Amino acid sequence: QLLLMERKLQEVHPLLTLCGQIVENWQGNPIQKESLRVFFLVLQVTHYLDAGQVKSVKPCLKQLQQCIQTISTLHDDEILPSNPADLFHWLPKEHMCVLVYLVTVMHSMQAGYLEKAQKYTDKALMQLEKLKMLDCSPILSSFQVILLEHIIMCRLVTGHKATALQEISQVCQLCQQSPRLFSNHAAQLHTLLGLYCISVNCMDNAEAQFTTALRLTTHQELWAFIVTNLASVYIREGNRHQELYSLLERINPDHNFPVSSHCLRAAAFYIRGLFSFFQGRYNEAKRFLRETLKMSNAEDLNRLTACSLVLLGHIFYVLGNHRESNNMVVPAMQLASKIPDMSVQLWSSALLR
């Protein structure tokens, strides 16, 4: 857990393998063993999600979901510990259920299964409302904020901007009730506002929100995510070349990329491709986008795949190769409809006219 918090992801993998063996070989009462297994699997799943590996995580996530189903059928009164240490529970059973919903939402958001993310968010929020009537544990508010952060991003992708704004307001209210929550989530809140501003085409406001978020975060992955989105704002504005070159150098996916996230590195290649496209350097843009496609296909990053395909289609369209353009745009449209990603659907439709 400490290695994950310190972002030492290379050191985590062998240690997780060893922990898995220890948990499987541990002899104890069923509920205690399942509780330990849930703890281990949550660490394993979050490790893969931190690394942006949404395809590789699927077997662990499935195990975790099966494990929580098993634990919910076991009764606490089955525990008759002979050792006081066996009384330790890292989380109550009901909290574990919400946590499993939460990591499922995180996975669905990264992979681009947005309807699934919505379904599990609804289940988790319903469960949280029930729990908060009887339990004032601060972890429940943390779960609620993280769930809302993810579903807000889903809303923006699916084109439900007004709902996203209402939920951003909910996150603000929750954070105002707790200085700890506000401190931990201020950067994320400004990032969400920046993403909302992009969705309504207010680029100056988006830049202000992302710049504030960068000042507030020390989290490497969040920093890289913000910089990637800020770069997209500068590309759209078209007159911020100095700032843009400086940002692109800091998230260069070809060398010294600042984080080990597969997903963020693939996104950095996409941003390079987008910039090259706007500069009219089409061969260079195609190279970057093919790299994005290779990486996104390897880990089922559906949104990045759809975005890369439609941009490649746009390049071929500009070059007058309409047949090759359609070969890219049609699958992009199909994938965007499945996600569903409103902006890619609109972009694809415009190219297919």
From TrEMBL:
Its main location: nucleus. It is found in: Nucleus, Nucleoplasm. Keywords: Cell cycle, Cell division, Chromosome partition, Mitosis, Nucleus. PANTHER family: MAU2 CHROMATID COHESION FACTOR HOMOLOG. SUPFAM superfamilies: TPR-like. GO terms for cellular component: nucleoplasm. Belongs to the SCC4/mau-2 family. One of its GO terms (biological process) is mitotic sister chromatid cohesion. It comes from the Eukaryota. Pfam families: Cohesin_load. This is MAU2 chromatid cohesion factor homolog. InterPro entries: MAU2, TPR-like_helical_dom_sf.
